[in-house]
Amino acid sequence: MIDEPFDEEPAEHHRYRRYLQDLEGVSHAEEAALVATVLRDPGMSMAEAAVNRHMECRASVLLTDPAFTAWSDTMAAVIGDRPFLTRRLREWTLLRAIALDEPWAAEELTTASDWFQRTASAAQIVTSAEVLTLLAERGRTRRVRNAARRRLQHPNQQPT
To answer: The pTM is what?
Structure first.
């Protein structure tokens, strides 16, 4: 019996890296088309992971920029009904609302994913005592509750 080499990387790993490179350098005008192309990849989990990573990068840059809304609307149309990506985009929109002191609902915050709650409890852009208090009291995990409490007690301290 001949053993197959263990150091050969699966093809989807190569495509993932390539997608990340392409998405990193894509222009705003070509972004939607490239995201749609990536999402047609047969490796659905890999494709969604690449698009999620791209959305994280782009959303963090655009978060307080007026261009965020148009970008978010475009991404929503491209990602369609993919539950994970739709939820993550909705959570970026919630983070934006909180950062800009726009309306948000407590239920949105308390039912948000662990990722969102960790991000909101640690992000310096979130300064709302109401948000941090809600997370300190009703955050899903001890880590979130503790981080929010620390932020309330030491608002100018960088998170660890």
So the answer is: 0.89
